Amino acid sequence: MNVVLLAIDTLRPDHLGCYGYGKNTSPQIDALAAESVAFEQAIAAGIPTMPSFTTMLTGLHPYRHGIVAHIGEKQRVAASVQTLPQLAQKAGWTTIGIDNLVIQGGGKGSWFARGFDHYSGFLYAPFTNQSEQLVDRAIQFIGEQDKQTPFFLYCHLWDPHTPYGPPAPYNTMHYTPGSTNYTMDEVYAHAPEYYKAFLGEMKCEHPDDYAAFVALYDGEISYVDVQVGRLIAHLKQENLWDDTIFVLMSDHGEAFGEGAIHFDHHGLYDAVTRIALMVKIPGAAPGRTRTLVSTEDILPSLAGLCGWELPTRYELTGQSFAPALHGEEFAGRERVFCVESSRQASLAIRTPKWKLIQPIVEDAHGKPLPHLHGTPRDPELLLFDLENDPCEKHNVADAHPEVREALLSELEAWHASEVALRGGHDPIKENGLSLSYEVFMSRLRARQQK
Question: Which is nearest to 277 in space by CA: 244, 324, 223, 342?
Fold first, then answer.
C-alpha cells in the first residue's frame, strides 16, 4: 500500500467547496473529499508552519518536541524523535520528500529531511508556477519507483500562502467587487505601517477593495487545486490509485479579520488553527466526521493503517483516528491544546463546544511579548462558544465565568505538567518570540528593495 501525504500550506478549509464555501474554488479537492473521510474539526496543535508540520511528522505536541515557533537559534528536535518517513523507511517503504523547510530554515530545520531516501528541497517562490513544478517532481519520482516496493510520498505545496499572486486566469476569477464585510480602511486602521508594507508585495489590481485580496487567496486555491487533480490523475493513470492511501491536509488556515488580524495566520482562532484534512483509503467508504482530532494524530493513524512500528522510547501525544476511517465508532478527542509564539504568544484549549485563548504578554524575564503588529498585547482571556458563534466574534468570558475558570484551570494544569516534563523549561517564555515585529518588518523591507 502506497501513501501520499499532500500538504497545502495556509489552506483554510471553509474556502473549499467540500467544506461549504459558496465559490467554486476547489473542484478537484471536492472530488477527492467525495472519495475520502473528511474531518470537519481537525485542529493544528501548534502554528504556524514549522510547529504544525513538526507535530504532524512526529505525533508529538509542540511542547513535547520543542518547536513552538518558526525556527530559532536554540530550537531542535531531539535525534531520538522518529518521524513518519523514518517509520515508513524502517518498514521497507521507499520514502520521498518534496519540501522546503530544511532549505528555508537555512538548514536549521534538518529534522524535516529525516528518513527520506529522496529529499527534494526548494525555496518558496511566490508569483510563479512553483506548485506545478513540484507536482511535476512528484510525478517523476512516482514514475521512477519499483512497483514491487511501496512508497511514501510527502509533498508540501505553498500556495495559497502570502504574498498572494496566482497566475492568470486565477488572479481574477473569484473577484466580486465589495463582497466582503471588511474595508481596507479598517485594515490600515489597525496597523498602517505594517499592512502597507505587507500588502505592498501583492500584485492586487484593486488594492482599495478587501474583496480583491480575498479573491487572490481564492485564486491561489484554484490554481493549486488543478495541481492536486494532476497528481491524482497520474496515480489513476498508472493504476496506483486503488493501492494508495491519499491524505490531503493543511498546516493552518488564514485570518480574514478574526481577532483584527488580516491576510495572515496568527492568533489561535479557528480560522487559523482549523485545518483541512481528508483521508482516502482503498476500499473504505467515504464520509464525514465532526469528531475532534489534532495534527498530533496523523502519525499514529498512518502507522496503524500501514502496520509501521511506533516509537517505543517515548510516549506519543497523538492517538489514532483510524477507526473513523473504517466507519467504526470513534469518540475523538475531548480537547486540543494549541500554542503559538512566532510573532505573538498564546495558549489555547479547544473542545468541541468551547475555545479559551490565553494571551502570553511577557517572557520569563518580564520582557513584554507584544501583538504581532508591534503594539502592546491585551492580556484579556478570550472565550468563544463555538456551537453558537463558530466565527468567534463574541468573547463570552464574562457571561460564562464558570466555563472560563474551568477551562483556564485545565489549561494551566496541562501547561504546568508539560513544563515539568521539560525539566522546568518553558520554550515559549524562555525563548520569547522567534520573529519579532522589528525583525519581520526589516526582512519585509529588505525583500521589497531587491
Answer: 324
Euclidean distance between CA atoms 244 and 142, whole angstroms: 12
The CA-based angle 143-145-148, given to 5 degrees, is 125
Could you state, in order of their start, the residue ranges of all structural domains in the chain?
A: 2-325, 336-449
CB atoms within 10 A of CB 329: 7
What b/e readout covers 235-247, taking b as 16+ CB neighbours within 10 angstroms?
Answer: beeeebbeebbbb
**Peptide linkage before 192 cis (omega within 30 of 0):** no
d(CA 182, CA 210) in angstroms, rounded, equals 6
The CATH H-level (homologous superfamily) assignment of domain 2-325 is Alkaline Phosphatase, subunit A (3.40.720.10)
**What does the alpha-carbon distance between residue 228 and residue 222 come to, in Å, rounded to a whole number?**
10
Check if the beta carbon of residue 174 is closer than 8 Å to that of residue 217: no
Encode the chain (450 residues) as per-residue pLDDT tens digits: 999 999 999 999 999 999 999 999 999 999 999 999 999 999 999 999 999 999 999 999 999 999 999 876 567 899 999 999 999 999 999 999 999 999 987 788 899 999 999 999 999 999 999 999 999 999 999 999 988 999 999 999 999 999 999 999 999 999 999 999 899 999 999 899 999 889 988 989 999 999 999 999 999 999 999 999 999 999 999 999 999 999 999 999 999 999 999 999 999 999 999 999 999 999 999 999 999 999 999 999 999 999 999 999 999 999 999 999 998 889 999 999 999 999 999 999 999 999 999 999 999 999 999 999 999 999 999 999 999 999 999 999 999 999 999 999 999 999 999 999 999 999 999 988 998 899 888 888 877 766
C-alpha 33/C-alpha 37 separation (Å) is 7
Enter the C-alpha cell of residue 177: 467587487
Instruction: Report d(CA 332, CA 321) in Å as an integer.
Output: 7
pTM above 0.90, yes or no: yes
> What CATH class is the domain 336-449?
alpha beta
